[in-house]
Every structure is written in C-alpha cells, then in structure tokens.
Fold this sequence. Notes:
- The protein is of the alpha/beta class.
- The protein has three domains: 2-38 and 90-141 and 263-346, 3-Layer(bba) Sandwich (FAD/NAD(P)-binding domain); 142-261, FAD/NAD(P)-binding domain (3-Layer(bba) Sandwich); 359-464, Enolase-like, domain 1 (2-Layer Sandwich).
- It contains 15 helices and 21 strands.
- The strands form five sheets. Strands 1, 2, 3, 4, 5, 6 and 16 form a seven-stranded mixed β-sheet that branches.
- Strand 17 (352-355) and strand 18 form a beta hairpin.
- Helix 1 (13-24) packs parallel to helix 9 (311-329), helix 3 packs antiparallel against helix 4 and helix 3 crosses helix 7.
- It starts with a strand and ends with a helix.
- Pfam families: Pyr_redox_2, Pyr_redox_dim.
- This is Dihydrolipoamide dehydrogenase.
- One of its GO terms (biological process) is 2-oxoglutarate metabolic process.
- FAD binds at residues 50, 109, 138-140, 303.
- It comes from Pseudonocardia cypriaca.
Amino acid sequence: xxxxxxxxxxxxxxxxxxxxxxxxxxxxxxxxxxxxxxxxxxxxxxxxxxxxxxxxxxxxxxxxxxxxxxxxxxxxxxxxxxxxxxxxxxxxxxxxxxxxxxxxxxxxxxxxxxxxxxxxxxxxxxxxxxxxxxxxxxxxxxxxxxxxxxxxxxxxxxxxxxxxxxxxxxxxxxxxxxxxxxxxxxxxxxxxxxxxxxxxxxxxxxxxxxxxxxxxxxxxxxxxxxxxxxxxxxxxxxxxxxxxxxxxxxxxxxxxxxxxxxxxxxxxxxxxxxxxxxxxxxxxxxxxxxxxxxxxxxxxxxxxxxxxxxxxxxxxxxxxxxxxxxxxxxxxxxxxxxxxxxxxxxxxxxxxxxxxxxxxxxxxxxxxxxxxxxxxxxxxxxxxxxxxxxxxxxxxxxxxxxxxxxxxxxxxxxxxxxxxxxxxxxxxxxxxxxxxxxxxxxxxxxxxxxxxxxxxxxxxxxxxx
Length: 465
C-alpha cells in the first residue's frame, strides 16, 4: 500500500495544476490516470480543435485583404494537428510531471473509502492512501441525446472529430454549442459539405444573442446548412452512410458528429463509497472541498464540479485547490475573502471564454440576461467594432461589441466581442471585471492607436453619452 500526501484522480490540465501546486508547497503528490496524461484539452479538445481551425482562419483573413490570394492543403492541416498532439503520445507530459516531482500511476482509479483509492492498472490492482487529500479531476464526458436509432450507427464525438484522419465528404453536426459551431466551420473549410442541426432557436445559446446570430450568418455564408429549431426524429444506417430523419425530411451523410453537451465524469470513480451519487456533479465550496463528505479530505476541480466547463477555469480551480490543501496541511489560516488566495471567486462572475469560429466570439463576465437575473441594475452599450485598427485588420471588417455595466457601482460586469481576431482583446475585459475598475478610472486607460483595442474608447464614449 502506497501513501502520499495528495492523490489526484485525473491527469488532465486541471489535475496537473492541483498536483503541481501541492508539490510546490512541499507536499508529495500522485496522479492516477487511465488514458493520456494531459487529458482532453491536450489531445482531443482545445489544442487539436484550434489547430484544425487556424489555417482556414488565416487563409480567410488573407482573402479579406486586397491583392492577396491563398489556398491550403487539408492534409497539411491534419498533419500540423498531429504535431500538436505528438501523435497522441504523452511521453513529454510524463517527463514534465516527473520533473515537477509528481508521481504518475497508470490505471483506472476509484474511491473505496476515506482518503483511499483503488487503482486497476497494467500491473494489477493496488490501493493508494492520501495522508492529506484526494482531489477528483476526472472532467466530463459527452452527453448522448435520446434519439431513436442513434445507437445503431457509428457516430463521432468531439474526440473523433478532432482526431479524424480524413475529411468526410458529408458531415452532419448535431448541436449548436461551441463544439458544434467550431467543428462545422473547421470541416467546411477543410472541404466537407456540412449540415448543422440545432434544436433551439439560435446557436451558442449560453452567450449574448447577437453572438449566435453572427456566427450563424457567417457559417451560412460559407455554405454550412444551418438549421435552427430543427428536430432530429431518428437515425438509421444507410449502407456505409448514415440517414438522419429530420423535420425537413431525410439527410444522408458520411459521418455524424454528436455535440449536444457534456456531463460530469463521476459514474465509475467510486463516489458512492463516500456517500455521493454517481453520475452527478461534485458540488464544492470555493476552496474546492466537496460538500456532503466529512473530514475536509475530498476535493474536486474542473468540469467534474459542473461549474465552468472550460480548461482555463479548471486550471484556475486546480491551483486554488492545491494551495488550499497545502495551507490546511501546515495549519495556515485560509484566505477565504472574496478574491482571496484560497477561493475560486472568479467562477461566479468573471469567467472568460472564446469561441474560435470566424468571426471569433470573446466574452468575459455575465451576459445581460445573467446580470439581470442576478438582480443587478445594468445598462447595456452596443456598438460596431469600427475603428482604425479594425479597418486595417480586414477590408469590410464587420464586428460588434457589447458592454454590460452595473450602474449602481459604476463597474463592468460583462463584455462580449464578435469579429475577426477579437480573442486577444478579452483579457483586458477580464482584468477590468476582476479588478472592479470604475468606469471613470477606465476612461484613463488609453488604447494604443491604431489597434482594435480602441473599441474600448468607443464603448466608454457611448456610455458617457
């Protein structure tokens, strides 16, 4: 039986951060991982998906400038994607962990009691015990909709899409969230005919309405068949192809990507052994302690908590958890004030997100609807992104910006940008929201000319009237 200070279930970026911050504080840590160390983001999500998108975006940007032409080879795009995933080899990640003083144990781990984890690995079954804490960072898995016949055909999940070795002639995408929109555009630009089926009235439903509207318009302009408020009645094999029976009639495709959301990965990790319900998110306080378990030993971070299903937010939570465990281990008083060192305050009101479509959608904080639902008196400012920097960026640049202001406190609570190359502007919004910078002070943050950041000046001018 092995004992360490901290056991981390799940070796994605969230688990790596939790373990790393525990080790930095002088504790010993072990990561239990049954797949590739580095997890979903490194091998099947953020990194490969952006690699699939980047070349198409760069070529589209060139074509928006006069006197330029550009083409690309889809096979080269797939090869470049493979380079970022190291051909799905995690040796470099293991070397990093070892160099950071973190032990890696291969195998499927599950809780079997207080601070105890049983691991089924290549060498058999063993039990490891944590002296201080167990941290669950097992992420999320795709949620499958109850469509008749879906289990009778082959389907792509996000993993299959981002690791595809060939570009299908015809692709159907079920779901209009981030994965659905990004992969619809990526494969359309790689050469597929694409139909995107969305059950609701708009794409990107968790974001400001104008974001989904602009992305839908861009996809349609590129030839994606975007069908909103569209019902998928059933699915059936059609030889080597797949027939989708929809409210507008049948659609036959070569591949079907199911991108209808994700659910916390808690079904097979033994949470029932500590009194929790499998398949449900692990509810945590802002230090990462799992509610419903006594003893201050079980923590969780990332998608598995159901908070913000984003890699960067999970890594942030992992850092908070690692620091909180270390503080409790040495008897240090935790800093649990809002924005304190041991609380994940940003999860509630300052989450940034980028949708890497073209146009990009970059948002931070609350939407107008979320702010009003939270009881905040808000004023919304909407303007086009029409400054010297955007005109230089692309001929006919077409973008939009929204600022949501808490009028009682005079601070930003939400910002959304939609347009080419807006992603790199969103951190300024995140800083303003986290720092609760008064708008009269923000007025003195002078944007450099001629950059697209001058949109900040235009937003403030519009607010001041």
